[in-house]
Amino acid sequence: SRVIEVNELTKRYGGKTAVKDLSFTVRPGHVTGFLGPNGAGKSTTLRLLLGLDAPTGGSVTIGGRPFRDRPRGLRHVGALLDAGDVHGGRRAVAHLYGLARGNRIPRARVDEVLRDVGLADAARRRIGGFSLGMRQRLGIATALLGDPPVLLFDEPLNGLDPEGVLWVRGLFRRLAAEGRTVFVSSHLMSEMENTADQLVVIGRGELIAAESLSDFAARG
Ligand code: ADP
Ligand code: ADP
């Protein structure tokens, strides 16, 4: 299955509680927005979802498996955690081909994904630095590489120009329409409008709401 289940998840860093007793479910076939102000615990939760960090309490499963048992590699879960981590310029494209080879993904798939995110020309030239928007596109390409059923994106709209925002929204809708699970964090409600149909809202590490965007918006 493609369902993400977060169950009484808690994460403390020393004396600081980043995430507290957080429970929610993310279903396939939707774009689910993960909304909360800066410092609310979104990145921490995404890192726990990916098994990049261990929870202090509670559990996370993706497709019914605890993250420790999760199949490794790019084919199960694709993620864009931080475009700042994407290596700059030509190295980034080389990294993408290397990542594909390491995961037994054909080069033609990399070419295809670079075309899909609008970076085919930039990749061919392999020159200069990449803007933040290009790094975002490249990070999204990385997440798409293995054609995974579950996709996690941390602030994917940051640094995109208006055309890029429209493109990413269209991409997320297509991925959801294909029956994938698409989970997208943001600190801006305005970004979630026209992007997500479901919302998980957190503040200070705790759940505030988990419902449709229209129900949340209608609360006033
Ligand atoms: P968001 O992604 O919503 O901005 P974060 O998950 O990055 O929130 O951070 C939640 C809280 O946890 C913040 O107060 C942050 O300072 C703290 N935090 C996150 N990571 C660490 C860490 N590695 N060590 C200490 N505190 C952390
Ligand atoms: P490498 O260590 O081979 O250089 P990275 O750790 O830099 O690969 O991963 C690059 C990107 O691939 C990450 O930003 C993330 O999007 C994705 N990724 C890597 N491993 C996983 C995984 N186990 N599950 C989901 N996504 C992953």
Note the main attributes of this structure.
alpha/beta; 28% strand; 220 residues; binds adenosine-5'-diphosphate; four-stranded antiparallel beta sheet; six-stranded mixed beta sheet
Structure description:
- The protein has 220 residues and is of the alpha/beta class.
- It contains 8 helices and 10 strands.
- The protein has a 6-stranded mixed β-sheet, sandwiched between helices.
- Helix 2 packs parallel to helix 5 (132-144).
- The radius of gyration is 17 Å and the shape is globular.
- The termini are far apart.
- The protein binds adenosine-5'-diphosphate (ADP) (2 copies).
- Residues 50, 72-74, 77-81, 99, 102, 142-143 line the site of one adenosine-5'-diphosphate.
- Keywords: ATP-binding, Nucleotide-binding, Transport.
- Belongs to the ABC transporter superfamily.
- Residues 4-220 form the ABC transporter domain.
- This is ABC transporter ATP-binding protein.
- GO terms for molecular function: ATP binding.
Q: Quick one: biggest sheet?
A: 6 strands, mixed
Structural class call reads alpha/beta
Query: Compounds present?
Result: adenosine-5'-diphosphate
Number of DSSP strand runs: 10
Gap between N and C termini, in Å? Answer: 35 Å
N-to-C SSE series?
A: EEEHEEEHHHHEHEHEEH
With strands numbered from the N-terminus, the spatial order across the biggest sheet is 6-7-8-3-9-10
Query: Which stretches of 5+ consecutive residues score pLDDT under 50?
Result: none
Shape: globular
Strand content: 25-35%
- How many separate helices? 8
Helical coverage, percent range? 25-40%
Cα-based radius of gyration, to the nearest Å: 17 Å
Mean pLDDT: 90
Protein name: ABC transporter ATP-binding protein
Domain ABC transporter: 4-220
Organism: Streptomyces rectiviolaceus
GO molecular function: ATP binding
